[in-house]
Task: structure prediction
Amino acid sequence: MSGMFTRFVEPGRLALVTYGPCEGKMCTIIDIVDQKRVVVDGPQSVTGVPRHMMPIKRLSLTDMKATIVRGAREKALKLALQKDDIMPKWAETSRAKKLKAKENRKNMTDFDRFKLMVAKRKRAGQVRLALRKTKK
Result:
């Protein structure tokens, strides 16, 4: 069945925090508390998310999963993330690239926005000129 759901809430599943003080950071599900809450860990040295309990509603699950046991400690989590090459794989996904671009746009200064506008105008002019040449 190709329509089968594959992103399960399970230990080792990489997730994006969508709300709260850790919003926009990646975390790994460590343990399941009940139907609505899980224990997540960054680890803090890698992603900046400390180990804490969080509602599942505040997480956005990804396709990536590290091979860890339920309730794994921080050292085992770090090793699993390195061994499975999770963080570099996440950085290559289109979702991660979009989030990075959004962050870059958010941190632009007024002069950066101006330079971007000028560059877009210049590119549009070059495209228009190239299209005009192909029509003749």
The first strand starts at residue 13 and ends at 17. Helices lie at 44-47, 74-83, 86-92, 94-106, 110-135. The chain has a mean pLDDT of 92. The beta strands are 13-17, 26-32, 37-41, 52-55, 59-65.
